[in-house]
């Protein structure tokens, strides 16, 4: 099986005035990658940060941590080159935000980043499917994008199961309301890249939460490989 369990804390709900040290803290607690939420106030009703912040973060945390950029922006084409230059590793854009996903996928690859494709809760997985063989990761949102700390939408799980059945080696990420209470559903459905914001960041023991999430997902992956 090509994919493995990976846990990527979302630093949205951390103390944003200490973003560098928060990222280091998450990596020290066993995070596999960092999920960085970019919001432009248009695609979602909230604003976070852009490529200048990513450039500073990269300098501060070094070359090692993998930056998965969750681009909740209206014109994702605009930020491909700046994000690549700033040190992003993966550019995850929303299908709803572009009229030409094929061209955007090509531009992201040419700039040297991996390609993630995200869908909001109202977007069907059939709309994502035509691109699945050209991307590195599919992100199934499990809340409406825009804010941390929302309730996990369990009814998104059939999308994950369908994707897993159709694309057995694709990286599938879930994002929104994921933590110890909802991880079993995600793992069982076939997600392997797990974004967790408030459940990890606000925990007294983030290391244990990250380890728990990874164990549940790794066990589900193992079970699936035995069942095949
Ligand atoms: C929501 C963001 C998420 C969010 C996750 O729009 O894309 O990454 O920060 O935070 P929790 O896990 O608290 O829902
Ligand atoms: Zn996100």
UniProtKB/TrEMBL annotation:
Protein name: Ribulose-phosphate 3-epimerase
Domain of life: Eukaryota
Gene3D superfamilies cross-referenced by the UniProt entry: Aldolase class I
UniProt-listed NCBIfam families: PRK05581.1-4, rpe
GO molecular function: D-ribulose-phosphate 3-epimerase activity; metal ion binding
Functional description taken from the UniProt entry: Catalyzes the reversible epimerization of D-ribulose 5-phosphate to D-xylulose 5-phosphate.
Catalytic residues identified in the record: 37, 175
Species, as recorded: Kryptolebias marmoratus
GO biological process, one term: cilium assembly
Lineage, uppermost ranks: Eukaryota, Metazoa, Chordata, Craniata, Vertebrata
Residues bound to a divalent metal cation: 35, 37, 70, 175
């Amino acid at each position: 099986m090509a994919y493995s369990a990976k846990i990527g804390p979302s630093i949205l709900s951390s103390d944003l005035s200490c973003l560098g040290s928060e990222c280091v803290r998450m990596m020290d607690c066993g995070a596999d990658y960092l999920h960085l939420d970019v919001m432009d106030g248009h695609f979602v009703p909230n604003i976070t940060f852009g490529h200048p912040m990513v450039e500073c973060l990269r300098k501060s945390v070094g070359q090692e941590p993998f930056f998965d950029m969750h681009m909740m922006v209206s014109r994702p084409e605009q930020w491909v080159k700046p994000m690549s230059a700033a040190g992003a590793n993966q550019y995850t854009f929303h299908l709803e935000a572009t009229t030409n996903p094929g061209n955007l996928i090509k531009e992201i690859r040419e700039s040297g980043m991996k390609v993630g494709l995200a869908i909001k809760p109202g977007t069907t997985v059939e709309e994502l499917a035509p691109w699945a063989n050209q991307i590195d990761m599919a992100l199934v949102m499990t809340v409406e994008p825009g804010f941390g700390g929302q309730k996990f939408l369990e009814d998104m799980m059939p999308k994950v199961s369908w994707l897993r059945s159709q694309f057995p080696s694709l990286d599938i990420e879930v994002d929104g309301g994921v933590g110890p209470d909802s991880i079993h559903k995600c793992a069982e459905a076939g997600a392997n890249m797990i974004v967790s914001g408030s459940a990890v960041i606000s925990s007294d023991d983030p290391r244990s939460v990250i380890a728990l999430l990874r164990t549940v997902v790794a066990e589900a992956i193992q079970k699936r490989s035995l069942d095949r």
